[in-house]
Amino acid sequence: MTPAFPEAKLWELAGYQGEGEEDTALYEALARFSNEDILDSQSQRFGFRWFDMQEKDEDKRFYLNGERVVILAAMTRGYWPTNGIFATPEMAKRDKEALQEMGLNMMLLHRAIGQPRSWNMPTNLDCLPMKSRVDTG
Q1: Which residues on neighbouring strands pair with residue 54, listed in sequence order?
Q2: Which residue, 1, 43, 81, 132, shows the most beta carbons closer than 10 Å to its own?
């Protein structure tokens, strides 16, 4: 199966949406599997976007959806006071809203690998998430 989305809008960073566009273009994919005994489904929110590096005057520049963007980021070290392991939904949302209040557009998730609450929240709030690589030796 190869889906096509000819009318899809591109996901944009906060502050980069076109005039009059305030909502991020997010979509939801739903996969449902069933047989006689089992019914299972999974949904995932996503946005259509692409990234590119271009060079101007020997200077590398980051582009999102064909438009140059300047990345302004903060890093979370992945420790939350309730349990030290993962963010509650409220904590994850507070982290991302603080990013936007500071005018930042990327959350670096350091040691927060594989935590869907932290990973998905930036996309829902028009910010880019970035996971740091875990070096296991």
Answers
A1: 61
A2: 132
pLDDT of residue 122: 55
* Strands lying side by side in the sheet with 67-68: 51-56, 59-64, 67-68
pTM over 0.70: no
SS (H, E, C) the chain: CCCCCCCCCECCCCCCCCCCCCCCCCEEEEEEEECCCCEEEEEEEECECCEEEEEECCEEEEEECCEECCCCEEEECCCCCCCCCCCCHHHHHHHHHHHHHCCCCEEEECCCCCCHHHHHHHHHCCCEEEECCCCCC
Burial of 19 per CB tally in 10 Å (0-12, 13-18, 19+): exposed
Instruction: For residue range 109-124, list pLDDT tens digits in order.
Output: 776 555 666 666 656 6
Contact between residue 43 and residue 28 where contact means Cβ atoms under 8 Å apart:
yes
Interior/surface letters 66-90, b for 16+ CB within 10 angstroms, e for the rest:
eeebeeeeeebebebeeeeebbeee
Spatial separation of the C-alpha atoms in residues 25 and 79, rounded to whole Å:
30
